[in-house]
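Sanity check

After download, print the first record. It should look like this:
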Amino acid sequence: MLTAFERAVQSFNLRPGEYVRSTKLKQWARKNLNKVYVPEALLNAWNLRVDEATAHATDKSQGAGASVTQAREKSTALAKLDQMRQTLSVIRTVDDAKQLRDQAEAMRIYALKQKYSVEMLNYCTEIKIRAERSAGKMLRETVKAGNPNSPTTRRIKLEDLGISFNQSSEWQKMAGMPDEPFERWMAEAEGMGEKITMAGLKEAIEQSRLVQKEKVERRKNRNEPVGFEVLRKLAIKMLNIGLQELKKTEANHSALHAAKTWAYCRLQENESSAKFAEGN
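Expected structure tokens:
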């Protein structure tokens, strides 16, 4: 069951980070702060004060003691989630990300048991996913592929971090999803008003992977060089062909002009191809 404050937030279509800046919510709070519970952090930010005598009389007449207590617990949980959300930007190690992820998961389970709103559940899930994605990015940079029994293989021991192989794999897949499609999926998932699920995220990751694969295939079909190694091989091939043409001039000096003409034509073709690629 939603509190009056949560219903107001939903009607104004606000997310937690937008509460303080909302003029409509501030006006609503000023009008109702002596009748229903409003998070203390917001009241302090807006410099509003509750008339304790009026509020106590209202609670007693409505038998609202339990509901107000629950609302205060929700407010405390929300404030903690806000702090955890800010912590995402200062994560420096895999262990930091893992700890934040575990805290968000614990909050999610608590919110589920307390039958909090979908918005609160999704807030917990969002922090959890973002922490896992941060861990995945760091794991992608530090975990080395190779034979784990080889003394020359350097890699992080996942068990020392309390991370399973499956978790490491899933988190690195999240990290491999480009920022733009990830943020778009997150916004769409929250906008639907339903629970954010890992199944939905996995589907989005697979779709993103297919899109990236299609882009690579299109580049190959257009014969566009991809990466330094491809360019190096092409350059060596062209030099070898040019050397063969140049050697012809050793036996036949009249072929020198033909070799120069050939080289000039190839140069023009390469420049035209480069300009075409830049234009597309």
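If your output differs, re-run the checksum step. Summary of this record's structure: Residues 228-279 form one domain.
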